[in-house]
Amino acid sequence: MDRLVLLVSTGVARGLVIALFALSLVIIWRAARIVNFAQAAMAVMAVYVAFAIEAATGSYLLALLAALVTGALLGVAVERGLMRHVAGRTPMPGMIVAIGLVMVLQSLLGILFGAKHRPMTPVLSESPLYVGGVPVLSRYDLFVLVVALVVVVGLGLLFNRSTLGLQLRASAVAPEVSRLLGVRVPRMVTIGWMLSSAVAALAVLLLVPTELGLNAHSGDVLFVHAFTVAVLGGLDSPAGALLGGVVVGVLVSLVTGYASAGLAPLAVLALLTTVLLVRPGGIFAAKEARTA
């Protein structure tokens, strides 16, 4: 029983990191109608900057801010330098460009820093805390939990309770109508890229200290899990990303703890297949209005 509690609690913390990254994919889909396959590579690049800042200053807070700012700036650069010039009325051309960008960024990181994993020390202890003699979350897991919840709540308030959030959503769903109403659609798309990239960088920064370390591919597995979560919940659904992230995090933790780490991807794939057979658009996908 003690082991189950520990696995579930750590799975929830890990799941919220997955949910954060999935939310970044949802944000960019809602803002620009594209699945950004370069999200993980961009986030890892931002975390390398954070790693350098922490090594130079010894301040985790400055590293955290550096990751967010660098992620946002990368989002602006990619949107204005590449995606804005991609023609096409479907998401496919942008996805192809994003896949090419992954190759460029990961190759660049490999050239600059090599394939070696660079360990990042967690800002707090990873030893589990005990409640009634039962091991639960570590201090670092609690930190991740709090940060992830704050960001999720903040994004929810932004999109559902603010004028900016309304403009972001309107620009994605009905750009021509939004222009007629005075919304600066290109600016909203850029802001969407900034938010998405910053959130993804935060998710990778929270994850790396619990893994082998930082290298060019540190965000790959996280991207696979987060993309699965986004598809499970529906690419338009932040609530689906949040719930799906927790479910996948707990599932991976339980399978790894009771079976083996090698079976965890198969369990995630089985979950994805099952959900898509029942709800091809995702569990929380919005129903399309009838047009005839």
TrEMBL record:
<dbReference type="InterPro" id="IPR001851">
    <property type="entry name" value="ABC_transp_permease"/>
</dbReference>
<comment type="similarity">
    <text>Belongs to the binding-protein-dependent transport system permease family. LivHM subfamily.</text>
</comment>
<feature type="transmembrane region" description="Helical">
    <location>
        <begin position="266"/>
        <end position="286"/>
    </location>
</feature>
<keyword id="KW-0813">Transport</keyword>
<feature type="transmembrane region" description="Helical">
    <location>
        <begin position="188"/>
        <end position="208"/>
    </location>
</feature>
<feature type="transmembrane region" description="Helical">
    <location>
        <begin position="59"/>
        <end position="82"/>
    </location>
</feature>
<keyword id="KW-0472">Membrane</keyword>
<feature type="transmembrane region" description="Helical">
    <location>
        <begin position="142"/>
        <end position="159"/>
    </location>
</feature>
<keyword id="KW-1133">Transmembrane helix</keyword>
<keyword id="KW-0812">Transmembrane</keyword>
<dbReference type="Pfam" id="PF02653">
    <property type="entry name" value="BPD_transp_2"/>
</dbReference>
<feature type="transmembrane region" description="Helical">
    <location>
        <begin position="34"/>
        <end position="53"/>
    </location>
</feature>
<protein>
    <submittedName>
        <fullName>Branched-chain amino acid ABC transporter permease</fullName>
    </submittedName>
</protein>
<keyword id="KW-1003">Cell membrane</keyword>
<feature type="transmembrane region" description="Helical">
    <location>
        <begin position="94"/>
        <end position="115"/>
    </location>
</feature>
<keyword id="KW-0029">Amino-acid transport</keyword>
<feature type="transmembrane region" description="Helical">
    <location>
        <begin position="6"/>
        <end position="27"/>
    </location>
</feature>
<dbReference type="InterPro" id="IPR052157">
    <property type="entry name" value="BCAA_transport_permease"/>
</dbReference>
